[in-house]
Amino acid sequence: MEKNIKDLRTDYQKGELNRTDLHDSPFVQFAQWFDQALNDDSVIEPNGMVLSTVSADQKPSSRVVLLKGLSDRGFIFYTNYSSRKGSELLTNPHAALNFWWRAQQRQVRIEGRVEKITPQKSDDYFSSRPQGSQLSAMVSPQSKPIPNRAYLSERLQQLRNELAAQTKIERPQHWGGYELTPDLVEFWQGRSNRLHDRFRYELRDATWTIERLAP
Question: With helix as H, strand as E and coil as C, how does the chain read?
């Protein structure tokens, strides 16, 4: 018998979240939760996060990207600057991130402003990537229409032939990192009967305030 969507339910009972559990800094609190997800073998790619951007004509779009760095001011990810998200961030630098760790029944929502990181940081990260990932970043015109899969395969093989003698592959200028600096971070812990625990950190006059929200 097929499952009915309206009957899909999970009663969250794995934890609770109280004000006394929270660190005053959302960055420290995030790091604590992230470490717990990272060390849970049942969590696949704990650094996977939904990135939402908005176009110049106010149309939102979302996709899953990977968190690749944490600093004392933000969250770092890498992508093609010419992609749809890159184009939207160019015209509207405000974006949102969403982490969902099912094993812990936790969610983290983050809102803020996005800026490119320095070329040197992008170079350093690009050089740390496997060669296959480096080449894919170079041949893929991300978000643009292509005729077929063979188009990518042929470009990849051509590039491999061209760079066969090189020991180091230089980062293409159309690819690099962004950092989202938050002004709002929300921590959500699933609770029974949909009475979830939610706490919002909001930056006001350079100070983080913490409020409990209704579920």
Answer: CCCCHHHCCCCCCCCCCCHHHCCCCHHHHHHHHHHHHHCCCCCCCCCEEEEEEECCCCCEEEEEEECCEECCCCEEEEEECCCHHHHHHHHCCEEEEEEEEHHHCEEEEEEEEEEECCHHHHHHHHHHCCHHHHHHHHHCCCCCCCCCHHHHHHHHHHHHHHCCCCCCCCCCCCEEEEEEEEEEEEEEECCHHHCCEEEEEEEECCEEEEEEECC
Contact predicate 35/43, CB 8 Å: no
Based on the residue annotation, tell me whether 198 is a catalytic residue of this protein: no
pLDDT in tens, 98-141: 999 999 999 999 999 999 999 999 999 999 999 999 999 999 99
Domains recognised in the chain with CATH numbers: 12-130+173-213 (2.30.110.10)
The predicted-structure confidence for 38-50, as pLDDT tens digits, reads as follows: 999 999 999 999 9
Catalytic entry in 194, 198, 204, 212: 194
Encode pLDDT of 140-199 as tens digits. Answer: 999 999 999 999 999 999 999 999 888 899 999 999 999 999 999 999 999 999 999 999
The pTM of this model reads: 0.93
